[in-house]
Amino acid sequence: AQKITQTQPGMFVQEKEAVTLDCTYDTSDPSYGLFWYKQPSSGEMIFLIYQGSYDQQNATEGRYSLNFQKARKSANLVISASQLGDSAMYFCAMRVRSNDYKLSFGAGTTVTVRA
Amino acid sequence: DSGVTQTPKHLITATGQRVTLRCSPRSGDLSVYWYQQSLDQGLQFLIQYYNGEERAKGNILERFSAQQFPDLHSELNLSSLELGDSALYFCASSVEGGRDYTDTQYFGPGTRLTVL
Q1: Cβ of B58 and A102 within 8 Å?
Q2: Which of B5, B6, B32, B43 to mutate to test the interface with A (most CBs of A within 10 A)?
Q3: Which of A15, B4, B15, B63 falls between 20 and 30 A from B86, CA-CA?
Q4: For residues A38 and A57, what is the distance between their CA atoms, to the nearest angstrom?
Q5: What distance in Å separates the CA atoms of residue A23 and residue A74, rounded to the nearest whole number?
Q6: Looking at the complex, does the CB of residue B52 fall below 8 Å from at least one CB of chain A?
């Protein structure tokens, strides 16, 4: 079975500092995709970044980067130079063939950026 | 703005009623997915349509049904509503049929359903 674990329910970070959100996953399938989404208080789900299981390099998208450690089955999201607008819930998700490619989500981590 | 549109944004109704949620995918996307987000269940995949055909099913109740029309917009029908159906319902779309782990899903703004 596939499982996504986000162990940090909530985090505080000072503006302009970096923050790392943990995500571990469990699958025996060698081919999978990992995704991070942001959900602000307004409710919409915003796609941030993608990492494929065969990607040799860690994914980056602007201030977002993914620290992918395949052997440890972790895909941590790093947000650099935090801004007040980064305050939101962040979800880690995975797609894998053995789950019929359904997108499975973790429980999420709430980030609050302090001025 | 993801390019996925959902209407209505908010819906308040009574138990036992039936509602229809509507979704238009991004231009060029053939797949539409429906999700339910509630406090106790988190984000749950309900159902996927690809180019008008049902492609995958998740934890969708028998009281719920969906379809995708020839113009690729989709509707989620919820009937015999119960208090526990109150949730945020998302539609997402992607280019491919979903049988590819690299295929990114883009979400709409959601419809917040309140059942009183």
Answers
A1: yes
A2: B43
A3: B4
A4: 22
A5: 6
A6: no
Per-residue tokens: A72 = 């440890």
With CA atoms as reference, the chain A residue closest to B46 would be A102
A33 C-beta neighbours (distance < 10 Å), count: 21
Positive or negative: CA dihedral B47, B48, B54, B58: negative
Cβ neighbours around A39 below 10 Å, total: 21
Structure-token match 């509602």, residue found: B19
CB contact under 8 A, B107 and A33: no
Q: Which residue has the tokens 């059942």?
A: B115
Judging by DSSP bridges, how do beta strands A24-26 and A3-5 pair with one another? antiparallel
Q: Tell which residue, A87, A43, A18, A112, has the closest CA to residue B2.
A: A43
Q: What is the CA radius of gyration of chain A?
A: 14
CB of A89 closer than 8 Å to CB of A102: no
pLDDT, tens digit (0-9, with 9 covering 90-100), for B17-76 = 999 999 999 999 999 999 999 988 889 999 999 999 999 999 899 999 999 999 999 999
Give the whole-angstrom CA distance, residue B45 versus residue B31. Answer: 14
DSSP-assigned states of every residue in chain B: --S-EEE-SEEEE-TT--EEEEEEPPTT--EEEEEEEETTTEEEEEEEEETTEEEEE-S--TTEEEEE-TTS-EEEEE-S--GGG-EEEEEEEESS-S-STT---EE---EEEEE-
Residues in chain B: 116
